[in-house]
Amino acid sequence: MTALPPFAARFQDVEVTFPRSWTAGANGTAYRVPGSTALDGVTCDVPAGQITGLLGRNGAGKSTMLGLLAAFRRPTGGTVLTGPDGDLRDPWEDAALTSAILLVQESGDVFHDQKVAATLAYYADLRPEWDAGYAEELLDLFEVPLRTKPSALSRGKKSALAATLGLAARAPLTIFDEVYLGMDTPTRFAFYDALLADYAEHPRTIVLSSHLVEETERLFEHVVLVDRGRVVFAEPAEELRSRASSLTGPTAVVEDLAAGHEVLHRQHLGPTTRITVNGALSDDDARAAAAAGATIGHEGLESLFVHLTRTSREAPATRVPDTDRAPARKEELR
Ligand SMILES: Nc1ncnc2c1ncn2[C@@H]1O[C@H](COP(=O)(O)OP(=O)(O)OP(=O)(O)O)[C@@H](O)[C@H]1O
């Protein structure tokens, strides 16, 4: 079978709401689950042939978006389209599309009570791009025994098996929904390295949801940040990496320098203040900062993630200095 090209995807004004429902508690009593809105007007693209990081806090809507991409669910409003670039369509009940999409969740889609080898045989039948030799190499790397049942594996080994299935299937749209959560740090790093190496050799579209931003950001070429069901930004990772800057120095100096910039965060330590602003600072700003005894730094993606998704309860109390200062923005008061 000819390999399909990497898939792209588009979310257009997507809403997902869950109606109020009834469920049974542990003691058998029925109780009401309130309705909720998981996605509220989500519009963004997933570029073909790139690794996209889908970032967001717990409950932000990441899994809901990934379930839509894999056609596990339908949106309540708006459209989700996927397919080869230039030929996007609704994946719902479209077997040709869904057989080229693989959503991998933490414990994987496996035969829990049969040996791991049985799951591998199933994937070999189902996935046209399956690479059996590579799957065995990965299981060896992660020390997952072929003759054990997934139900008998530790949480970390279950995750490693799921990651192996996702990588060895080489689906044109491969989606990892926080698959690495159960893995210890060395295993997670081995997974990231394997993913990058295999992606370089076999280009495809990969979407990886994460809230471990610092350690996963090096993988991403494109980043979508969702917060409380809305897209905060969807941009090439390169642009985001230089997007936030910090100014550190005497309070009056950095307040002056920050005037006119969107302040994401303000931190005071005695007479010294550190202000994080949204956007790169100009050469003129850098010269002015150096002359006034302040320093400028770049903030990584994690800093943007933390500052742009902080709730009002989490924002540290900010002392407003007595000096002239840039007007407070609502972000710092949230
Ligand atoms: N079946 C459901 N019924 C009702 N509400 C749901 C259902 N599934 C998800 N939600 C709600 O939708 C919102 C988004 O959930 P989702 O699982 O997509 O978030 P997430 O970003 O993947 O979170 P996490 O990182 O914690 O896994 C949450 O508020 C969640 O409670």
TrEMBL record:
<dbReference type="InterPro" id="IPR003439">
    <property type="entry name" value="ABC_transporter-like_ATP-bd"/>
</dbReference>
<dbReference type="InterPro" id="IPR003593">
    <property type="entry name" value="AAA+_ATPase"/>
</dbReference>
<dbReference type="GO" id="GO:0005524">
    <property type="term" value="F:ATP binding"/>
</dbReference>
<keyword id="KW-0547">Nucleotide-binding</keyword>
<feature type="domain" description="ABC transporter">
    <location>
        <begin position="9"/>
        <end position="253"/>
    </location>
</feature>
<dbReference type="InterPro" id="IPR027417">
    <property type="entry name" value="P-loop_NTPase"/>
</dbReference>
<keyword id="KW-0067">ATP-binding</keyword>
<feature type="compositionally biased region" description="Basic and acidic residues">
    <location>
        <begin position="321"/>
        <end position="334"/>
    </location>
</feature>
<protein>
    <submittedName>
        <fullName>ABC transporter ATP-binding protein</fullName>
    </submittedName>
</protein>
<dbReference type="Pfam" id="PF00005">
    <property type="entry name" value="ABC_tran"/>
</dbReference>
<feature type="region of interest" description="Disordered">
    <location>
        <begin position="311"/>
        <end position="334"/>
    </location>
</feature>
